[in-house]
Write a structure and sequence with these properties.
Layout lengths: L2 H32 L5 H24 L9 H25 L2 H8 L2 H11 L7 H25 L3 H28 L4 H19 L1 H6 L7 H29 L1 H6 L3 H13 L6 H18 L5
């Protein structure tokens, strides 16, 4: 492959990742709206069940081969548990208790976790500026969640929700680092399909009580459209593009695109949900964004 062809491919990959973060940024408000009519676990079970089937079908149509070596099934199961089951349960319940804007800001710390974990495992080295960014992000997290818990946003539940979302960000970072091994061995589409499919039955099983108790008559067409958006765009296509990015441009460079997600989600939440920020929350949000940028500055891929 010539240098020009490689540059073109990477440019298209960057555009695809950019489109994905726009989809994910808007998804916070989409999910928040739907959770007014669907319980968190019901929503998760429906969107992941549908996305798993869709991604498996897409992988088969494109690759015509879904085979995974027997020795890799345990690794795929670990990826599924971390990046799907645990992450999704923490995220959806955290979002239900918090605000769309706050949730996206907390999740934006994922690149910081990638950097710290990459340093701990010898994959990366952080400079003094990077460490300043890490500390600034953590300080911003404290201010943001403390301001919310103090009654400036949603009361004490916002603190619990923020902590759940923070834990989900950590899980996503571990998943992003571990995923690199499998997407270099298999296609990104096949790897994503199996990662999603392995834990979807567990998500559905965990949601069984909520599925039985759900008032289906109260679910509007807008919520069903939101569910479709999350299933097809945010999960099936979004996860596939993310995996492809990890494979072709590296986990660190891919994680950098998370910088844009909170800016998009806060803007969309302001327009669609009427969410606003108290000055102290704005201070915390600014510290998180600046800290994440500094934390990833000149980081290796």
């Amino acid at each position: 492959m010539t240098g020009q062809n490689r540059s073109t491919r990477l440019g298209l990959m960057d555009l695809a990742l950019l489109a994905t973060v726009f989809i994910w940024g808007a998804n916070f408000s989409v999910v928040k709206y739907a959770l007014a009519e669907l319980t968190p676990m019901t929503y998760n079970a429906l969107r992941f069940g549908g996305a798993s089937l869709l991604t498996l079908l897409l992988a088969w149509l494109v690759e015509r081969n879904l085979r995974i070596e027997r020795s890799d099934w345990g690794y795929f199961l670990m990826l599924s548990l971390i990046g799907n089951l645990i992450y999704e349960v923490l995220f959806i319940n955290g979002l239900a208790l918090s605000r769309a804007g706050n949730t996206s800001l907390i999740l934006s710390t994922a690149p910081i976790w990638v950097a710290v974990l990459g340093t701990a495992t010898g994959q990366e080295r952080l400079s003094a500026v990077n460490w300043v960014g890490v500390l600034l992000s953590f300080g911003g997290l404290f201010v943001l969640t403390a301001a919310s818990a103090a009654g400036l946003a949603m009361g004490r539940g916002a603190l619990v929700g923020g902590l759940l979302v923070l834990a989900s960000a950590f899980c996503w970072s571990v998943y992003t680092l571990l995923l690199k091994r499998m997407v270099h061995k298999y296609s990104s589409l096949v790897a994503t399909a199996w990662v999603m499919a392995l834990t979807s039955p567990l998500l559905i099983l965990a949601a069984a009580p909520d599925l039985r108790a759900q008032n289906w008559h109260a679910v509007s067409s807008r919520s069903w459209l939101g569910l479709l958006y999350s299933t097809v765009l945010a999960i099936s296509i979004g996860y596939t593009v993310w995996s492809t990015g990890v494979k072709h441009v590296g986990s660190a460079r891919t994680a950098v695109y998370s910088y844009l997600t909170p800016l998009i989600s806060v803007s969309v939440a302001w327009i669609t949900l009427g969410e606003t920020m108290h000055p102290w929350q704005a201070v915390g949000a600014a510290a998180i964004v600046v800290g994440v940028v500094l934390g990833r500055l000149k980081a290796g891929t």
